[in-house]
Amino acid sequence: MTRRYARRDAIQAMDPGTQSEQIVRLVATYEFPWDVQQALSFALFRTYAVPSIGGLLARTAELTDHTQKRHDDTVLILDAVLTHGLGSEEGRTAVRRMNHMHRAYGIPNEDMRYVLATFVVTPVRWITAYGWRGLTDIELEAHVTYYRALGRHLGIRDVPETYAEFAELLDSYEATCFAYDAGGRAVADATLRLLRTFPPYRLLPAPVVRVFAFSILDEHVCRAFRYPRPPRPVVALCRGLLRLRGRVVRLLPPRRRPVTVSDLSSLRTYPNGYRVEDLGTFPSRT
Fold first, then answer.
1. Do residues 225 and 210 lie in contact, with contact meaning Cβ atoms separated by under 8 Å?
2. Do residues 229 and 1 lie in contact, with contact meaning Cβ atoms separated by under 8 Å?
3. Tens digits of per-residue pLDDT, 2-59?
4. Please, are residues 238 and 212 in contact by the beta-carbon 8 Å criterion?
5. pLDDT attached to residue 286
6. Judging by beta carbons within 10 Å of its beta carbon (0-12, 13-18, 19+), is residue 167 exposed, middle or buried?
7. What pLDDT sits at residue 208?
8. How many whole angstroms separate alpha carbon 71 and alpha carbon 63?
9. Sign, CA torsion 106/111/112/115
10. Planar angle of CA 16, 170, 238, nearest 5 degrees
11. What does the pLDDT look like over 132-156, one tens digit per residue?
12. Quick one: what percent of the chain has pLDDT higher than 70?
């Protein structure tokens, strides 16, 4: 059991200010790879409940007509930053791609800041609820530092300074801005259809996957999309299964190699490889 926590203990000796990228990389690829992947997917999903975000995504039709590619591009662009760092050529190229796409649509700073908050808060809350262990203060500080740096590179203004401020921003923005929008609902439906093709969900009947997803989503997220909220015993069962998974993972030996994008069977758009500069959409070309 001591060996199981060896990487956590090594992270405790690192500096969350100067080594935030390394710490976040260790957490995301060694300690909690599946949890982080799931949490970030649900983080993006909840943003569709903001009409200005979900409606815009519906109008571009990228997430409804090319759902798999849009998913893959998002994962690969974010991975380029995580794997290589913001100061690397790959990281800088990934940031340029994000900035080009975002600026083409004139996305308000408030929406950009909220999306950044979902990336900060949702993984922390997921790991706290379902992870095989909790995050340490060092890991949490590094997580915030990493995303604050990403926010600066994306030109986002008035980025929160602490995790508590990010959490307050997320909760207050959702309380104020969540509302039903037909476009946002269409994007959410398309995303759920794609989710049913991913492991382990593809092994389950489609209605079971939908009920599981609705059980994991916060109640106010379901309400914004007008999704039916499963009965409380079903919600408790689904969330209990995730907590059970965390307890099982705790008993496993520590991971010896990182989980990388090449290990993700959910990525299918580029079987022959890709270049970061070619990922995403190019609005100025249309």
1. no
2. no
3. 699 999 999 999 999 999 999 999 999 999 999 999 999 999 999 999 999 999 999 9
4. yes
5. 41
6. middle
7. 95
8. 8
9. negative
10. 90
11. 999 999 999 999 999 999 999 999 9
12. 98
Handedness of CA 274, 277, 280, 281 (dihedral sign): negative
Q: What is the mean pLDDT of the chain?
A: 95
Q: Which candidate, 70, 93, 39, 84, places its Cα nearest to that of 267? A: 70
Q: 0.90 cut: is pTM over it?
A: yes
Whether the per-residue pLDDT at 228 is higher than 90: the answer is yes
Q: Is the pLDDT of residue 171 over 50?
A: yes
| Contact assessment for residue 16 and residue 23, using Cβ atoms and an 8 Å cutoff | yes
Closest CA to 51 of 213, 169, 187: 187
**Is there a contact between 136 and 8 (Cβ–Cβ < 8 Å)?**
yes
By CB atoms closer than 10 A (0-12, 13-18, 19+), residue 47 is buried
Residue with tokens 């190699």: 257
Crossing angle for the helix pair 109-130 and 137-153, nearest 10 degrees? 160
Structure tokens given for 285:
């070309």
Query: SS3 sequence, the chain?
Result: CCHHHHHHHHHHCCCCCCCHHHHHHHHHHHHCHHHHHHHHHHHHHHHCCCHHHHHHHHHHCHHHHCHHHHHHHHHHHHHHHHHHCCCCHHHHHHHHHHHHHHHHCCCCHHHHHHHHHHHHHHHHHHHHHHCCCCCCHHHHHHHHHHHHHHHHHCCCCCCCCCHHHHHHHHHHHHHHHCCCCHHHHHHHHHHHHHHCCCCCHHHCCHHHHHHHHHHHCCHHHHHHHCCCCCCHHHHHHHHHHHHHHHHHHHCCCCCCCCCCHHHCCCCCCCCCCCCHHHCCCCHHHC
